Amino acid sequence: MNHADGRNLLTTAQAASRLGVKPETVYAYVSRGLLTSTRLPGVRGSVFDVDEVESLAGRDSARRTDIGAVERIRTQTTLIENGHLYYRGRDAVELSSLPFESVAHFVWTGELLDDVRFSADSTVVQRCRAALGSIAPDCRSIDRIRIVVDVASTYRPLRFDIGSTSVVQEAGHLLATVAAALGDASLELSVAESIWDSLKTGASDPRGSVPLQAALVLMADHGLAASTLGVRVAASTRANLYSVVAAGLGCIDGPLHGSAADPVYRFLSTAIDDPVDALATRLRSGERVPGFGHVIYTDRDPRAEEILRLLRDPAHGADPAVVAAADTIVEEVSSRFDTFPNSDFALAAFTLAYGLRADTPEMLFALARIVGWAAHALEEYDEAPLRFRVPGIYTGTRPETY
């Protein structure tokens, strides 16, 4: 490691800030052999290797600073444990048979009610639909959602009230507005019914609204994913709910998060007629098969299992050719590579099974995740504001070099 110009070295003050201790404690760590101090010509005081400081910061012997300690985010919303997904202690798969509005309200408040309805203002919905009429006709659904959120926010003068009662009301209103604005159905429909109406084509079986409803619930939250962390940061500045949701939408607008199902959709599209040949072609080219494995789950994604189970049920009207192809791929890939299908695979299969728009997975993900983002915003509003001032670690050339 080259220390000649001060790169990769921290001053005592920087090391103390990173460790969340006083400068005197840093020297105590040196005396105990936990850190190695170094002298650099032209630099007053000791300097410390950044990797050594980072290593110590991850140990219990050093107390991390609360500022920037994003791993200490407290949440009562979602637990992922032993291959299961829980919302407020309730299994998300079990909740997925309930109305989306009821589950959303439960995630926000802890109250599981049967008769929850979200309402949208007809004038606001018409204004949102008019705004969507002025954009490119082939734009992505997530672009449309983003526009609806921005337009709708301008009609909510009390959106700056971040009290829990107000945020819960606004979150329900926002979901109903987005769902209604994306199509042209009656405002009397539920969120899931409105979304299905905006998605379906002439070939779509109306019974597909059942797995869609389940998918919305199962995608409502997934802990501190990248977009949710962005939402927590926005909420810590006391941004209103609409701005918080906009932050989340910005974070998922990428191939590694909200658009992760795109390559799965493209692959499955080529596999319907001959899944084995499509899989063989993929393997022959050295490309990995998309839609398998997960960074959190080790042997199963419960969201994917439930969505695929619903697609297999003839009562829900999914295209049997698509379901059969998906099952063949799952069986072959899982047995050969000791892996499992994830939610991206399931959402792509759902989209193809009902002949929906290619970007349907991204749209469902974005709309459903508004539920989780609102829940995390509610939690963050109860925390100390501006707590995510993460200290940067300067590794450039030291001023003394010049």
TrEMBL record:
<dbReference type="InterPro" id="IPR016143">
    <property type="entry name" value="Citrate_synth-like_sm_a-sub"/>
</dbReference>
<dbReference type="Pfam" id="PF00285">
    <property type="entry name" value="Citrate_synt"/>
</dbReference>
<keyword id="KW-0808">Transferase</keyword>
<dbReference type="InterPro" id="IPR009061">
    <property type="entry name" value="DNA-bd_dom_put_sf"/>
</dbReference>
<dbReference type="InterPro" id="IPR016142">
    <property type="entry name" value="Citrate_synth-like_lrg_a-sub"/>
</dbReference>
<protein>
    <recommendedName>
        <fullName>citrate synthase (unknown stereospecificity)</fullName>
        <ecNumber>2.3.3.16</ecNumber>
    </recommendedName>
</protein>
<comment type="similarity">
    <text>Belongs to the citrate synthase family.</text>
</comment>
<dbReference type="InterPro" id="IPR019810">
    <property type="entry name" value="Citrate_synthase_AS"/>
</dbReference>
<comment type="pathway">
    <text>Carbohydrate metabolism; tricarboxylic acid cycle.</text>
</comment>
<dbReference type="InterPro" id="IPR002020">
    <property type="entry name" value="Citrate_synthase"/>
</dbReference>
<dbReference type="InterPro" id="IPR036969">
    <property type="entry name" value="Citrate_synthase_sf"/>
</dbReference>
